[in-house]
Amino acid sequence: MYKAYHRAPELSSVEHRTAESIEARLTELGIEHFRSGGTGVVGLLTNGEGPVVGFRADTDGLPIAEATASTTPAPPPTLCPTAARRPQCMAAATTLT
Q1: Per-residue pLDDT at 72
Q2: Higher pLDDT, 75 or 21
Q3: For the purposes of burial, counting CB atoms within 10 Å of the CB of 43, is it exposed (0-12), middle (13-18) or buried (19 or more)?
Q4: What are the residues facing 89 on neighbouring strands?
Q5: Which residue, 33, 41, 85, 88, has most beta carbons within 10 Å?
Q6: Residue 68: what pLDDT?
Q7: Higher pLDDT among residues 24 and 81, named by residue
């Protein structure tokens, strides 16, 4: 998931592919979800009464050249470091279901 987001960044408010992939994964996990603000996705995990915990991840990226010491060039465009946050939130959702 990280590599897919890293290779195909979407700018703020036009993260349609990203939102669709998040919705697809939440559906696979059986997690209720809805859109918020056009391209935002909210997943709802319920477990009766009690405290509420929220996880959040940015879904937009910046098409920037990646500076690396590797001899293998990174495939342009690449994303800013926030690309890791989406898979982390999805891993939490997977663990909690």
Answers
A1: 64
A2: 21
A3: buried
A4: none
A5: 41
A6: 65
A7: 24
DSSP characters for 23-42? HHHHHHTT-EEEEETTTEEE
- Tokens 């036009």 correspond to 14
Residue with tokens 């495939």: 75
Cβ count near 5 (within 10 Å) = 23
pTM: 0.72
Q: What whole-number distance in Å separates Cα of residue 9 and Cα of residue 89?
A: 18
Note if the bond before 9 is cis, omega within 30 degrees.
no
Q: Is residue 13 left, alpha or beta, with left meaning phi > 0 and alpha meaning psi from -120 to 50?
A: left
Decide: residue 16, CB within 10 A, 0-12 exposed, 13-18 middle, 19+ buried.
exposed
Pair of tokens at residue 87: 């898979």
d(CA 35, CA 42): 6
Question: Count of residues for the chain?
Answer: 97
